[in-house]
Amino acid sequence: MSTETYRSSFTRGSTLWLLQRVTAAFLIVVLAFHFFQLHFVNHAWEIDFAGTQARMSNLLYFTTMWLFLVTATFHGVNGVYNALINQGLSGRPHQVLKWVLIIAGAGLILQGTRVALVMAGIDLP
Fold first, then answer.
1. Per-residue pLDDT tens over the stretch 32-90
2. Residue ranges per domain, the chain?
3. CB-CB contact of 24 with 75 (8 Å)
4. What is the 3-state secondary structure (H, E, C) of 84-98?
């Protein structure tokens, strides 16, 4: 057994620890729904812009896909951040990484939301 001490950025039972697990469970369910919709209900060769617009114009589908975007972004960004913290990243590089990931995550959600709104047929100014 190694004499190294185990570092973890997650404190068991903390909010981030819980959110990482809740988003994982949500992503498994929504990914299964997404896969089913785009491979069994609508076959890959049938997917086109008009069909995507039709699906995204349904408020429940739109909301589900938007939540998919937000939870996947949070889960991924939080996972990368915590993996690097667990490798011992600290000090100024830690702070820079944190803000780079926050800005990148926010940008991804913003652009994904813009695309989703256009796909739903909502004109953006």
1. 998 888 888 877 788 888 888 999 999 999 999 999 999 999 999 999 998 888 888 88
2. 15-119
3. yes
4. HHHCCCCHHHHHHHH
Backbone φ, ψ for residue 40 (5° rounding) = -120, -45
Torsion of CA 123, 119, 62, 113, to 10 degrees: -70
Would the CA dihedral through 27, 31, 32, 34 be positive or negative? positive
Q: Which value, to the nearest 10 degrees, does the dihedral of the CA atoms of residues 85, 86, 89, 94 take?
A: 10
- The CATH number assigned to the domain with range 15-119 reads 1.20.1300
CA 25-19-71 angle, to 5 degrees, is 65
